[in-house]
């Protein structure tokens, strides 16, 4: 609480008489002013003006600074009223006199003083109010200062409104700083006028002055530039709109933005400026594009998978001797295909390590340990190569279990692969099984591993019916290089 605010602090008004009555009834002869009839014309005129005013006023008169005041000021005096009337200021405000006296003396020397937004507690309880005070010298007919007129005004409403405005402005500043949206104000010609602190951050703007006044649509590229110009035209017509597009930050970072453009309506009801709020949705856009690519890829892979299933079923049933034989063969081949798909699922259908493919494909046939072995370097196969090799191993293992090295108690199977000079070679070798007789005709299994699977590696597949054991060699390009069907 300032010194001048404290001059008005204290409890509520006491007594029911108006100040004009109190002035009439007061024993002025007992005061330093003397009988009222003997007052100077200046004092009488000032007091009459004061008593007739609705503004809180007080007069400090003469060397003793005698206190005179009106009804409005009585409200400010509170419990000091009506005792304060006709007393020296020092007696009314003894606790403040040492601080107040120099300021009062300045006015008595002819200086006018004003104090604004002075806070204090009024009416004897915690009611926070604010007042403006103006001290003016009162001069007699000779020009000498004889008194001081204090005109006060309750500025609580104004102060509170300004305080709320300051709080609101501070809040909005905090919001603009915290927001990751790029909030901009444009003039009606679409030139940059303002950019939020958060906007400068996401747009990587180090000096807004360097871009202030620039045409905002120029920041957009391609279709985004046309969309920005259309949005500006809509805002100029008083209509809000939205669009999305690419625009680089000031440091050249490519960003994709979701933009809202709205007119700022003036007092006359027409647009006077334009508000643009841009949100960085680059990651969302990338995710949408990735989902679109994935959907296309899945559609492609499903088409390939269905084609493979159709070929397996058609060719197997065509060469089966009975429906039961055909049903069993189809079931086994589709199971092998399903196991290969499980591997691809773990890698988002894009690729698989050859060791995982081999181990998964041969697992159902590893009835006895140490009869099946494999070795070779780790590298990835494309999805089609993984499916093809898995089916080839299934066909070879099924044939070995029925007629070859896995049909007795002593036979063995070894798989070996390598990459040399950019070429891939895979060998299946059976030993220890019954003597092999070349078949009179080639079935679907043979065509599958020699032609279809080989095509996935852009190479060649060769099935050799050696009397000592069946051998199969697949050559071609290593994984990730062969083109997919």
TrEMBL record:
PANTHER family registered for this protein in UniProt: HISTIDINE KINASE (PTHR41523:SF7), TWO-COMPONENT SYSTEM SENSOR PROTEIN (PTHR41523)
SMART domains listed in its UniProt record: HWE_HK
Presence of keyword Nucleotide-binding: yes
Domain PAC: 109-167, 241-293
Species per Swiss-Prot/TrEMBL record: Methylobacterium komagatae
Cell cycle as UniProt keyword: no
Name of the protein in question: histidine kinase
One Pfam family per UniProt: PAS_4
EC number annotated for this UniProt entry: 2.7.13.3
